[in-house]
Amino acid sequence: MANDKRIDEATGVETVGHEWDGIEELNNPLPRWWLWTFYASIVFAIGYCVVYPAIPGLHSATAGTSGWSSRGALAHEMKEADAERAGIRAEIAATPVEQLASNEKLLRASIEGGRAAFKVNCVQCHGAGAAGAKGYPNLNDDDWLWGGDIATIHQTLQHGVRQPGDDATRMSQMPAFGRDGILTPAQVQDVVSHVRVISGQEKPSGSSQRGAAIFAANCAVCHGGGGEGGRNVGAPRLNDAIWLYGGDRATLTETVTNARYGVMPAWGSRLDPVTVKMLAAYVHSLGGGEAAPAPAAAPAQAAAK
């Protein structure tokens, strides 16, 4: 590699003095437009570092003379969005949850707000599509422990399931029949056989016949004589194909032996009342929601008046 500068005969431009395998480089000056663009970029970068947060420090970046920050911008946008929604949220707050369906605008806003809240707070257990998982109920079907009308769903969301210190929380208490010695292991198996028969999973047998008598003495008070369940105590229906933990023999044996005590947060203590109401509207809209129960018939004397 030579290091001799010379004037290129073809262009009249001095070379840089280096040669690589016979290839030489001309020492052409940079275009002025490029230089001015480069200088302007330097000036802009300096100005940006002065005006906006830019230079990292030990705990934070320089603040910048404008006082702007991405966090501040986000907070401002969220405040503006909250202001835009304030009117509709006030209307939802003033409307009893069971009357939301009578106002299409409020119902639509509640469902969309509940959809957003569900994605933040509920998908971890119930799944993105609310299909649930083992131990977490599917919210798309019409199988409800305490009821599926919007007011009942709202009550469940508000106070949760098995939440200590809340007298209004949903509470069901199934005995641990095997663990506490109420039933022997053989009797547990007989009860499991009976449950699997009434749910259509097994054919009747001697075990299921014995289990029917044990079921009538120990389980029917909550689950009903035919396993139809009892919403007044949150007892699940046992004569269908819907299972929270599973309907196979091993899982049912575990359930009867040790019982299940699932919990759900009391969202009324974690979310604002309007958000809880919107969650109730969204869950009710998923496909398994029920109409509100008809009011009880007035007594004959009152009707006569």
Automatic annotation (TrEMBL):
The keyword Glycosyltransferase does not apply. GO terms for molecular function: electron transfer activity; heme binding; iron ion binding; oxidoreductase activity. The chain crosses the membrane at residues 33-55. The keyword Transport applies. Its main location: membrane. Its cofactor is heme c. It is found in: Cell inner membrane. Residues 109-199, 206-287 form the Cytochrome c domain. C-type cytochrome. Part of the cbb3-type cytochrome c oxidase complex. Component of the cbb3-type cytochrome c oxidase. This is Cbb3-type cytochrome c oxidase subunit. It comes from Novosphingobium olei.
